[in-house]
Amino acid sequence: MTAIWEGFLKALELIVTLDPEVLEITGRTLVISIASTIIAGLICLPLGSLIHFNNFHGKRTLINLIQTFYSVPTVAVGLIVFLIFSRSGPLGFMELLFTPQVMVVGQIILISPIMLGLVIAALSGVDKAAHETAVAIGASQFQAITMVIREARFAIYSALIMGFGRAISEVGLALMVGGNIRGYTRVMTTAISLETSKGDIVLSIALGIILISLALIINFSLSRLQQRWR
């Protein structure tokens, strides 16, 4: 117990003194996760709007399929991305495997179903009469859709936060396609896994504290947005 307490104190010291390695790993984690969330958001918002505002055969089945992928294992996505970007894969010529860029691609694939499903749910939560009224008083289809999106903005923010939380906490995908290369692709989750297996619990605890703190911030922000939405 004493060793754990000492490790915890040393970990706090690393954080307070802004240890370069801790800052580097944390910064890279945030950059990759934020980039993935922003790009996925730019994809999911228009795609979710397209699905919600149009009626077509198989729409319910498509939404059910999207929701099914909410819990897809990160290692499964990692395997798919690895096969696509490996030397023998269709995009192997791009030589992106074991780079931060392919980690972003993998996280986009991982979080897009969650964000897409939540965007559709957010738009569905807006009273249909709002869209119909806007069209009736002369608004174009684009203006009416924009108005509905504005009404659902807090729920859409929640979708972004959920996507970011999923991205920053995953480990299997990062290990498989990023390779956990020190100073290049190592992120908080993979560093915690590696350093713990090596017996370096001080760095693991420091990164764990930061990761848990980020999780608390994400959950608090999500709770606040949900209260405003209601």
Features:
230 residues, mainly alpha
Care to describe what's here?
There is one protein chain. With 230 residues, the chain is an all-alpha fold. The protein has one domain: MetI-like (MetI-like fold, Orthogonal Bundle). The chain is 78% helix and 0% strand. It contains 11 helices and no strands. Helix 2 packs across helix 8, helix 5 runs antiparallel to helix 8 (153-169) and helix 10 runs antiparallel to helix 11 (201-229).
Work out the radius of gyration.
21 Å
Assign the CATH superfamily: MetI-like
What is the CATH architecture assignment? Orthogonal Bundle
CATH fold field value: MetI-like fold
Binned, the helix content reads over 70%
Q: Judging from the principal axes of the Cα atoms, what is the shape?
A: globular
Beginning-to-end CA distance, first to last residue: 45 Å
Series of secondary-structure elements, N-terminal to C-terminal: HHHHHHHHHHH
Q: Structural class of the helices, strands and pairings?
A: mainly alpha
- Total helix count? 11
Compile the SSE list and pairings.
Layout: H1 2-16, H2 20-52, H3 59-68, H4 74-85, H5 100-124, H6 128-136, H7 141-151, H8 153-169, H9 172-178, H10 188-198, H11 201-229
Helix pairs in contact: 1-11, 2-5, 2-8, 3-5, 4-5, 4-9, 5-8, 5-9, 6-7, 8-11, 10-11
